[in-house]
Design brief:
It contains six helices and no strands. By secondary structure, the chain is an all-alpha fold. It is globular. About 75% of the residues lie in helices and about 0% in strands. α2 packs antiparallel against α3, α4 packs antiparallel against α5 and α4 runs parallel beside α6. The relative contact order is 0.12.
C-alpha cells in the first residue's frame, strides 16, 4: 500500500481503547481457531480407531489442517500488519511465507470442501455403490493436492514479492490480470463448483 507508516511514525500514534479491544478480539479468534482445529484433527486421526476412520472424516481433518495453518501463520501476520498500519517489520522472506500459507491454505480448504460435497452427493445418488473407506490411494490423492497447491503458490508468491519488493510492506499485487486470474482459478471457480454440488444435494 502507498500509505504505510514508518516504524517511528507508528510508535508516535495515539492508541484508543477500541484499538486494544480490537486486537484482543483478534487474538481470541486466532486462539479459538487453533484450539478447535487441533481438537478436530485429534478426534479424526488420533482418538478414532481404524474402524471409525473414513475418507470423509479424513477430508475434514485435511480441511482442519488447512484452517490450522491459517490460524498459526495468516492470522498472526495479519494482526501484526494491520495493527502497525500496513507496516511490515519481518522482511521479504516472512512476507512470502505469510502469502504462501494464506493463499495455499484457502485453496486447499476449498478443494477439500468440494471433495466432501462430491462424496456426499455420490452417496445420495449411488448409496450401494459408493464406499467411504479410507484407502492409501485416497490418502495419496489428498497429499498430492497439498503438494500441488503449496508448490504453485510458493512459485507465485516468490515471483510476485521479489518483483514488487518494497521495504517494510507486504502487499500481494502484481498486475490486475494476474490477480484476477489467480482469484478466478483459486477461489471463484471452486466456490461456484461447491455451490453447485451442495445445491444438487437439495434437489
Amino acid at each position: 500500500t502507498t500509505g504505510n507508516l514508518s516504524l517511528e511514525e507508528f510508535s508516535n500514534n495515539q492508541w484508543t481503547a477500541s484499538n486494544y479491544i480490537l486486537i484482543i478480539l483478534k487474538i481470541i479468534v486466532c486462539l479459538f481457531t487453533i484450539i478447535s482445529n487441533i481438537y478436530i484433527i485429534s478426534i479424526v486421526l488420533i482418538k478414532s480407531n481404524k474402524q471409525k476412520q473414513s475418507y470423509t472424516n479424513f477430508l475434514f481433518a485435511s480441511t482442519a489442517l488447512a484452517d490450522l495453518l491459517i490460524a498459526l501463520v495468516s492470522f498472526p501476520s495479519y494482526i501484526l500488519y494491520t495493527t502497525m498500519n500496513s507496516y511490515w517489520p519481518l522482511g521479504n522472506n516472512m512476507c512470502i511465507f505469510w502469502i504462501l500459507a494464506d493463499y495455499s491454505s484457502c485453496s486447499i480448504r476449498l478443494v477439500n470442501l468440494i471433495l466432501i460435497a462430491l462424496q456426499r452427493l455420490k452417496q445420495l445418488i449411488w448409496p450401494l455403490k459408493t464406499n467411504d473407506d479410507l484407502t492409501k490411494l485416497r490418502i495419496a490423492f489428498v497429499g498430492i493436492i497439498w503438494f500441488v497447491y503449496l508448490f504453485a503458490w510458493s512459485l507465485a508468491s516468490s515471483f510476485v514479492m521479489n518483483e514488487m519488493y518494497r521495504p517494510n510492506d507486504c502487499y500481494f499485487m502484481y498486475t490486475f490480470v494476474f490477480v484476477m486470474l489467480a482469484d478466478l482459478f483459486a477461489f471463484l471457480i471452486p466456490i461456484f463448483i461447491l455451490i453447485i454440488l451442495n445445491g444438487s444435494t437439495l434437489w
